[in-house]
């Protein structure tokens, strides 16, 4: 099983801030990593896949980087609609696993 | 427009069974791997199971192996999750998700979820 950690678990930020969320794997996964955004009471939405490819329709202020064991999600200029919980997910091997999540809330 | 609509959730006693369904529309269902992902109340996401386009390959998280069965009916554009020997720790919102063309893809579309509560 590939274990994942995310940091921070809670991030307090203001509109316009640049924020960075990290995701670390217990073993290398090449670039088989996705990032999801989830708002309360809603299903997750795919933001980024293959570590750095933006899903269609996702604003360009979202970006992803990394490979192997260390990955990063960056929001370049936080908007009000970005306050949510973010999860990373590896799809390199079964069982697929998700990180524990990072909640981005208003400072 | 891609749509995934889950149904079949509800309250069930420990040891009981439940069958979840997911009705798919807006895409060629038989061309995609499909998945179930769950989320316990106030907790994170947990992948549960994947099934190949023709149903010939299935994968499960260890905690549900031998108790849950994923299946599909391509003629009805439907995905299913048969859940037996349910435990309190299976209480969660269960999401149906599309997993694109290969078994190793992210989930690009999700349903709205159906709540399963296991309690006496």
Notes on the protein architecture:
The complex is a heterodimer of chains A (107) and B (120). Chain A is mainly β and 107 residues long. Chain A has strands at residues 4-7, 10-13, 19-25, 33-38, 45-49, 53-54, 62-67, 70-75, 85-90, 97-98, 102-106. In chain A, the strands form 2 sheets. In chain A, strands 2, 4, 5, 6, 9, 10 and 11 form a 7-stranded mixed sheet that branches. A 4-stranded antiparallel sheet of chain A has the order 1-3-8-7, with no helix packed on it. In chain A, strand 9 (85-90) and strand 10 form a beta hairpin. Chain A is globular. The mean pLDDT of chain A is 97. Chain B has strands at 3-7, 10-12, 18-25, 34-39, 45-51, 58-60, 68-73, 78-83, 92-98, 109-110, 114-118. Chain B is mainly β and 120 residues long. Helix content of chain B is 0%, strand content 48%. Chain B has no helices and 11 strands. In chain B, strand 4 (34-39) and strand 5 (45-51) form a beta hairpin. The radius of gyration of chain B is 13 Å and the shape is globular. The chains are: A mainly beta (107), B mainly beta (120). Chain A binds chain B through residues 1, 32, 34, 36, 38, 42-46, 49, 55, 87, 89, 91-92, 94-101, and chain B through 37, 44-47, 50, 59-62, 95, 104-108, 110-113.
